[in-house]
Each structure stands twice: as structure tokens, then as C-alpha cells.
Amino acid sequence: MIKKIVFFIAIIFSLNLFAQTENTTEQRLNAWFTDAKLGIFIHWGYYGVNGITESWSMYHKRISHTDYLKQGQKFTASNYNPDQWLDLFERVGAKYVVLTTKHHDGVALWNTKYSNLSIVKHAWARKDVLTPFVEAVRKKNMKLGLYYSLCDWSHPDYQPVTFQRRDVRKLYPQKGQQKMTPWERFTAFNFNQLEELSQFKPDLWWFDGDWEHKPEEWKSKEIKEKLLFWNPQTVVNSRLNQYGDYKTPEQGVPVVRPEGAWEFCMTMNDNWGYFPTDNNYKPIAQIIRTFVEVIGSGGNLLLNVGPKPDGTIPQEQVLRLEALGNWISKHKTAVFDTQAGLPYGHFFGPTLLSKDKTKIYLCLFDNPKNYILLKGIQNKVKSIKVLGAEQELSFERNGGAAWNNIPGILRISVPADQSLDPYVTVLEVHLEGELSLYRGHGNAVELNM
To answer: Within 10 A of 345 (CB to CB), how many other CB atoms are there?
Structure first.
């Protein structure tokens, strides 16, 4: 009998511990991440010298490992000014930044003592570029994200690797590790580098490359425990192989709204790093509309920039960031202090909802004709205006059966041409009381008034 009691107590304790862990995850996300809306992703590394694909150009054997690493001889960081970067990101309205501290190629941006393959020891630049970046981020009171690749295709003990590597052992000191297996040495290396990076107290760990091994091989659980030990408030992306806090769809905007916290990462052209021959830049309108779609579905947009080897950001990217920033500044009421908008079917376009649920923001991608429709709103409407233009719009309700709780359709007049935004026009619908939605399937009205 006593054994049974102990057994049930253990189960209850385990369930309670699980619930506490889940609550902690939610609390960590809600502390800042779920309200951030916009982050800047920075892919900066050797690959920008030749203008080739980061790391993957080796994987697909478009360049040898030796020639890939030779790019370091021209990675100068000579015009690198992280304060200027952060001034730009702040103007755009970004709340966090994520820098690639080490991609799959193994090149570290900081002065790691566990590898000689770093900007400090191996590149022409001969300097730590991570520390001043972190300092610039902290000056702006923005959240710091550090990208770290779990796989390291230059490490002599890492497998699988699709290309030949020469003389890589001299790049990775391994004194006192001779009795360890190759994989034990590699996982110890990962833990050591992560501990080095933990000195910066990142608010976000952005992992990548987890698909190449199982979580128990990466020791994902142990990594997560270490990260939270170093900083109990940190947030971890989904690519720690089953131990992340939020989802990270990439390059293709989700058609169905993801459940829980999520972030969409996207390039401005077709490449993450600096790629001077890639001029296939997304139009400003597409970037702004993507941002609106993402935040309207409750996610964050992590928009990428790829600085040049000298540390300057290409003008084509600056132009798009500034345009996005101007749009956000004009519509900041709808962007910040809002949450995911209405479910599908109430409005033909993205929407956002104020935190107190008394205002709906309707996002118009195209110039409307005749009138604008909003369906299923039970509340009375106080006013409707064009955000940023402050034009008040007339409206009326058509159809429905109020005595049967069927609200009908809210028909809104079309804004004046001068009130329309060239990219996305936003209407603010101010409700009486907290939003009440009609979500019925419709039915026969059996009693008319």
C-alpha cells in the first residue's frame, strides 16, 4: 500500500513539474518575444568574399573546403561599425537582432579558445567582431539573439561531411582529449563554445543544423538545461531538435496560422549572406505585406541582412529596411501592443487586435472599390478611421437578425485616395466593449420581429 502511495505521489510530482516547466516556457516567451513583432537576422561570414552560398557551397562541392577558408584572407571588417548597424535597426522598429556567431562552416566571429578557425585568428580582420556587436545591442536596450550551428563541417571529429577536408586538426586544439571518442570530443567542443557565448547573456539562442543528428546525440536536453542555468530567462528557437520554445518556418509564409509562438525568417533577395550577383530583391511592398501577414497571424518577422566582408550593409537592403521602418512608424499603434487578429472569414485580409480587444485593425493590401466588408462583429462600433491619415470613415450594418444574435455585415466606406497608403492601408475599428464575435454557421430565422 505504501509503495502505491509513493508511486502516485511521484506521478503527481512529475505532472506538476511538467506543468511548471510549460508555464516557465510561456512566461519566458511572454516576457518579450511574443510582443517583439520584428527582429533582424544577420548572416555575416567568409562566404560574402566570393559571394557564394554560406557553408552549403562546400556541401554541394561548388568550392573546395581549402578554397572556401581562403576567403578569410579578404574578410577585412575594415568598415565595421556595429553602432551604425543598430542605429539603422532601431529606426526600422526592430526589437531584437540575431547574429550568426558560427555557421555550419565552423568560422567563429568571437575569440574562441576552442578553435583557431575564427575571425580573430584566421581572417585578415584579426579582431573579435562579436563583443562590440553585443555592446551596441545593449546600448539600444534591444534583445540579443545569437545564432549557433550545432553542426561544424570543419571540425575533424564531425560527421557526416560530404566534402574532403585537409589539415583541419590544427584548427581545433584537442589536448587531453585523446581518450575520448570522436563524437565525445565534438559534443564537448559544442558545450565549451556555448559556455563561452553564454558570457554575453543572450536573450535568444537561435540554433541551426539539428537535422543531422538525433536529440540524444546532440545532447539537446542537456544543452537546454545548461542554457537555462546560465540565463533562466533566455528563449530558444525550435532547432534544438525537440527542445525549442517556438516554431521557425523559413522563407515561405505559413498558409495556416501556426499554433503557439512562432517566427518567420526571410531573406530580402534569394540568399542569406552577401551575394553581389543576386539582384532578385523582393519589392518593398512584398516585404511590408509579409510583415503584416506574419504579425496578423501572431508571429514575428526575422528579416535578414547580409553585410559585405568590410562590414557595411548593402544599400539595396538599407533602402528596404528604411521603407519598412517608415511604414511601421506610421502605423505603430497597429503594430505594437496588438495581438493576432480575427479568425479566417471575417475579413478578406490580415487583421490585428488591440491587447484590450476593443480595436480591430484591418489591413488593406489593395485599393478598395465600392465598400469594405467586415463580418461577424457583435459589438456596436464607435468609430472607424484610417490610421496615419486620421480620416474618419462612415459605416452601416446590413442584414443580420439581432434578436437571433446574427450581426450581419458591417459595410465601411472607401477612404479618400490621399488617405491610402502606397503599401498597406490600415483601418482602426473602435468597438464598444471587448470584441464579441459571431462564429455560427447560420440557421433559419424561425421568428421575425
So the answer is: 9
**CB-based contact 355:338 (threshold 8 Å):** yes
391 touches 419 (CB < 8 A): yes
Residue 179: pLDDT band (50, 70, 90) is: confident
Half-sphere exposure of 25 (CA within 13 A, CB side): 17
User: Contact at 8 Å (CB) between 207 and 239?
Assistant: yes
How far apart (Å, rounded) are the C-alpha atoms in residues 145 and 95?
Answer: 11
* Sign of the torsion angle spanned by Cα atoms 112, 114, 119, 120: positive
Question: What pLDDT, on a 0 to 100 scale, did the predictor assign at position 19?
Answer: 40
- Tens digit of each residue's pLDDT (9 = 90 or more) over 13-44: 443 433 444 448 999 999 999 999 999 999 99
Neighbours of 401 (CB within 10 A): 14
Helices (H) and strands (E) in the chain, counts: 12, 15
Q: What is the DSSP letter of 283?
A: P
Task: Give the number of other CB atoms < 10 A from CB of residue 419.
Answer: 17
β-pairing, 204-208 vs 235-236, is parallel
Location of C-alpha cell 499603434: 333
Q: Which three cell numbers stand for residue 259?
A: 499554433
In a 3-state reduction of DSSP, which class is residue 422? coil
Distance of alpha carbon 61 from the chain centroid: 30
H/E stretch holding 236: strand 235-236
Whether the per-residue pLDDT at 56 is higher than 60: the answer is: yes
pLDDT, tens digit, for every residue of 325-341? 999 999 999 999 899 99
- Quick: pLDDT tens for 406-417: 788 999 999 999
C-alpha cell at 207: 540554433
CB atoms < 10 A from the CB of 327, how many? 26
Burial 229-258 (b: 16+ CB within 10 A, else e): ebeeebbbbbbbbebbbbbbbeeeeeeeeb
List the strands of the sheet with 204-208, edge to edge.
235-236, 204-208, 143-149, 96-102, 38-42, 300-305, 263-266
Beta bridge partners of 398: 409
Computed on alpha carbons and rounded to an integer, the radius of gyration of the chain in Å comes to 26
Q: Which residues of 7-42 are buried (b: 16+ CB within 10 A; e: fewer)?
A: eeeeeeeeeeeeeeeeeebeebbeeebbebbbbbbb
Indicate if the pLDDT at residue 405 is higher than 80. no
How far CA 27 is from CA of 32, 161, 210, 219, 301, in Å, comes to 9, 39, 25, 24, 20
